[in-house]
Amino acid sequence: MVDEVVEGTETKVMTYAEAIRDALRVAIAEDDRVFMMGEDVGIYGGAFGVTGELINEVGTERLRDTTISELGIVGAGVGAAITGMRPIVELQFSDFSAQAMDQIANQAAKIHFMLGGAVNVPLVIRAPGGSGTGAAAQHSQSLETWFVHIPGLKVVMPATPDDAKGLLLAALDDPNPVVVLEHKLLYKTSGDVRVGDARTPLGVAAIRREGKDLTIVATGVMVSRAMEAAEQLAAAGVDATVIDPRTLKPLDSKTILASVTATGRVLLVQEAAGTLGFMSEVAAIIAESETFAHLRAPVRRLSGLDIPIPYAPKLERAAVPQVEDIVAAATALVTEW
Amino acid sequence: MVDEVVEGTETKVMTYAEAIRDALRVAIAEDDRVFMMGEDVGIYGGAFGVTGELINEVGTERLRDTTISELGIVGAGVGAAITGMRPIVELQFSDFSAQAMDQIANQAAKIHFMLGGAVNVPLVIRAPGGSGTGAAAQHSQSLETWFVHIPGLKVVMPATPDDAKGLLLAALDDPNPVVVLEHKLLYKTSGDVRVGDARTPLGVAAIRREGKDLTIVATGVMVSRAMEAAEQLAAAGVDATVIDPRTLKPLDSKTILASVTATGRVLLVQEAAGTLGFMSEVAAIIAESETFAHLRAPVRRLSGLDIPIPYAPKLERAAVPQVEDIVAAATALVTEW
Amino acid sequence: MNPLAQDAEAAKSVLKTMWMIRRFEEAVEDLYGRGMMHGTMHLSIGQEAVPTGACLALNKDDYITSTHRGHGHCIAKGADIERMMAELLAKESGYCRGRGGSMHIADTTTGNLGANGIVAGGVPIATGAALSAHMRGTKQVAVCFHGDGAMGEGAWHEGVVLAAMWQLPVVFLCENNHYGMSMASEKAFNLEKLSDRAKGYGIPGVTVDGNDVQAVRDAVQEAVDRARSGGGPTFIEALTYRWRGHSKSDKNLYRTREEIEEWRTHDPIPAFEARVLQAGTLTETDLEEIRNQVRDELRSAVQRANAAPDATADGLLEAVYAS
Amino acid sequence: MNPLAQDAEAAKSVLKTMWMIRRFEEAVEDLYGRGMMHGTMHLSIGQEAVPTGACLALNKDDYITSTHRGHGHCIAKGADIERMMAELLAKESGYCRGRGGSMHIADTTTGNLGANGIVAGGVPIATGAALSAHMRGTKQVAVCFHGDGAMGEGAWHEGVVLAAMWQLPVVFLCENNHYGMSMASEKAFNLEKLSDRAKGYGIPGVTVDGNDVQAVRDAVQEAVDRARSGGGPTFIEALTYRWRGHSKSDKNLYRTREEIEEWRTHDPIPAFEARVLQAGTLTETDLEEIRNQVRDELRSAVQRANAAPDATADGLLEAVYAS
Ligand SMILES: Cc1ncc(C[n+]2csc(CCOP(=O)(O)OP(=O)(O)O)c2C)c(N)n1
Ligand SMILES: Cc1ncc(C[n+]2csc(CCOP(=O)(O)OP(=O)(O)O)c2C)c(N)n1
Ligand SMILES: [Mg+2]
Ligand SMILES: [Mg+2]
């Protein structure tokens, strides 16, 4: 669907951070099993202000400040999830998933399968990724690859306030561990958000814009950059479709393949380092598919450089795709092929 | 080169495990800075017998038994590497890299860049991966994706005894952190190994077999399966090239692309789970390249199922590609296109 | 607390459990040796008093988290030995449908949240189960079995830190069998007693003879009572010894034959039998009957497990996600 | 040990370092406020006595590992403030060529192995540096600065476990400024003194007034002497307080204004100045001169740093791997 928010649904303008807070509020109110824990999520309001003053509404039992122990808190989330709760764990930066990787990949992801289906692990892990805040290499990564590769995890990457809320609520409904990768630069962006308990189903891509000349697939903060690029391309007579997969795993490859089959050209845009970034999988899926025969140009990936994110503002900017890079790559795809 | 071991070089038949031990022996003897630490690498001889009785030759200073503290020992390796040593850290199973991921990805990989080049991190991490031993989901993963995706790491995956030795010695020469992913099923396989300080350069693929009908790219334990499949295919009149990248990062994509351009068909074989497995990157590279125009069939990946590795022998076998699967996939590629 | 050896029912139950663990693992060893079992195995022969004593202090709905050396925990908490054996034999009727094997057996119906192939992997999970019990207001307690070697892991530390901060109803029960694989705990941790660690988390710590089922039961009972009444976590070190190698690959080079022999003279099962006889609670005939009963039950369970259909590869992909 | 306040050279050096840390961070705060600095920043204003005292006990080739709040450590170990400031201003002449910023400044020429954006990330690294010193037989010692909050991390635990096992020459120096971001260490760790943790690793532990430069120096000196002579690691808790918020996003909601005000009366710098005056080692004029000298040095360093060319994006890809 091109328009996310269905006509007639009541909406409210919120920031992405507020939309997440709203989802937390809704989920905690409607389900006794839901709680969130993380570093500084209480009185501090979250490192990025996501929880804000929520602690005053829901109290310290349902919104738990933890020690700085990422492995421990994800593990505690696993333990709570398999014993009847619906925990959400906030990692302050997605980079710190490195600390928690055993509990994420070796425990949460595998328990259901490994135990022959005897137990479910309805755990949600929220973690902000991405660069653009000058926080340098250890606080700016886009690590979706680590999670998407591991069987047993689901992975979502909301690009709009409405999806930030809707995907989080859908993740909480899911009986499996879901990693929700938010983006720091999006927290302060605003948009229409459905009020109440509005879910965005997992596994369904959003077509943000429809055009006939090429398909741009973009994730996270790259969605809005792709949309901006598409506007500029349109002004230059190039009509682009923009697809936001929203859920990276399970991926709605059908929507992507159908569009690429129709346009014959595809530009894959991500912030993550290119080598084995998520778009490598999308490229591989296209290369393996029937769509292959319909390609009028080779698949093109536009990714973050294969470097740690640098501190200096200009260098940081150069490290990841910008609107002008998307315009240039799309133009080349359309004109050179 | 088709034949790894150059004519005239002195060789000895060794197992893969013995070849690694030989490399350790050579490196420890020739360089005072080299030492290895890990769990049970001393008197126990290593969980897979890699160190064997080496402790009696090199002593407890250069071969250090550690507590069960993967994050700590990789971190200690980082600290030793940036202060003048050449440490090797053995992770008992590559699955436990999950525990150590912060020191691997956030420290070792980034320090050189993040510090503006002021320091090098000549750290080698050895870790056995793969299934086939009935050790189930937490002891059988093929996690190369995690490392290949992170800028700053180099990643090798030796498939023969000679490369097990040669790549390890080359990794020790390298001023960067190198992850050496060995395979449990290979430890007891034997082959000719060059004696003395024989290096296998990083970043150079091996063409294990040359054929004109299709290119098979395979890694780790899949290399010997691909070779066996190629023999069977040859008997059926299908002539396959088999390429073993050996180094996954930096990847010798030139060798792969040249071969695929020549054959027009490519089968990518890996043990790892397919979604964002290493071969997704190879597929993407092909889809983006000039080679694209020479493809006579879509790229085909043959991967481990997207499941945690099961315990039951039949299920474990079904989870990853076997010789017959490679034969079938190659045959389909050649006959259907 | 009530002496187990003086109560006929309790004594029988203790002996049944300890013998069952012993015989179960001997059977595993035998099946393995005959090539009928796959993978690896970690046997707890010699350590039976720890899970047996500990689980006596627990209700059925209390939780345990277990380890790679988990058969004893599983049996003591009340699992069905046929389904356990079926799992090891890679049968569809196994606890994990053959997907998990020895290192992943769980029986949530008796509160066992699972063995774990990851050393210390269960520690934060136990903390989470205790947090869950606290939040649901159930008065359940979680006992986290772990080895001495596990105390080198960051996961152990973080799990204990959180439990101590929130004063959760969890008992960290260290089975100190003196080695983490080949690493002597004495050498590893620079401590006389591992329970000295507890002070660093502001929680009570105690060391007991892990081959004395009564001592284990009493210490765990005290800790469980404290946890249940809101007094927070406890750390218990139970000193014991593993008779067998760490796993099949172990050549036992890191310890002496004498040491092993010496520890075998502290076998927890005959020690408890002797106490029972001495107290006059049961007769030698009663003891013989228990042993026979265990042997028969086990033999029949193995037969039934073995006769069951193998796990099948059908639906592997569908089994990854719950729906 | 020799009283710093009674030795003119020592007293001058202490004051120069403490003032330089204070003024450097005030300048950073100012530049940041004026939009001339990017990213985030963690200021150690109020905590200056800890790095200053600690580094007095170290040789130039001794190692330190530092933290996200690392300007003080870097200055005290002897780094060049112009290159530090250049780094924060994203200049090519910065210690990291503008690639690292505040959280990654290192100066290996003075033994600083680097600030670290990862809480407790430097702990195992310090252990490794000490291992390296031991293996190379150099008698170097490593001091690992870390916060109270870092003691919740598994990395902290594992680093200390290894150092204790191998009895390495490393000092774990906890700057307990009472909070890990918003989490009070008192609440987090369930301990009266964080140094009570040391016992659990079989190493000596001590708590000192971290705002008393002499107390810090003496404790670190003792630990360093022990380490250098083969006596293994020590844990030191230095009690101090951060005056500013954790970082720019901090609204200080987790602590009271009164608490902050109370701690400001324990400013380590005037406290040491008073001692020096009382001892008659230096005069008020001498003190004024030191302050002026620091101000001038800093001002000129900022100017030079600011005038230097910006870091460039050329060669970013080539900068990832060493060759
Ligand atoms: C994270 C991790 N590291 C290493 C291993 C390999 N391993 C399995 S058991 C074991 C020893 C564990 O020792 P301990 O905790 O004392 O338990 P025990 O085997 O003595 O019962 C090791 C090193 C593992 N399974 N997981
Ligand atoms: C692994 C990790 N978790 C969380 C953070 C976010 N963070 C940065 S500093 C900090 C507080 C650290 O507290 P402490 O160790 O006491 O040092 P202080 O800031 O008080 O100097 C937190 C939570 C981080 N950088 N790294
Ligand atoms: Mg043990
Ligand atoms: Mg602090």
TrEMBL record, chains A, B:
Coiled coil: none annotated. Its cofactor is thiamine diphosphate. It comes from the Bacteria. It holds the Pfam family Transketolase_C. Keywords: Oxidoreductase, Thiamine pyrophosphate. The keyword Oxidoreductase applies. GO terms for molecular function: magnesium ion binding; oxidoreductase activity. InterPro entries: THDP-binding, Transketo_C/PFOR_II, Transketolase-like_Pyr-bd, Transketolase_C. Gene3D superfamilies: 3.40.50.920, 3.40.50.970. SMART domains: Transket_pyr. Residues 14-189 form the Transketolase-like pyrimidine-binding domain. NCBIfam families: PRK09212.1 (NF006667). This is Alpha-ketoacid dehydrogenase subunit beta. It comes from Terrimesophilobacter mesophilus.
From TrEMBL, chains C, D:
SUPFAM superfamilies: Thiamin diphosphate-binding fold (THDP-binding) (SSF52518). GO terms for molecular function: magnesium ion binding; pyruvate dehydrogenase (acetyl-transferring) activity. Its cofactor is thiamine diphosphate. One of its GO terms (biological process) is pyruvate decarboxylation to acetyl-CoA. Coiled coil: none annotated. Pfam families: E1_dh. InterPro entries: DH_E1, PDH_E1_Alpha_Subunit, THDP-binding. Keywords: Oxidoreductase, Thiamine pyrophosphate. Residues 17-312 form the Dehydrogenase E1 component domain. It comes from the Bacteria. This is Thiamine pyrophosphate-dependent dehydrogenase E1 component subunit alpha.
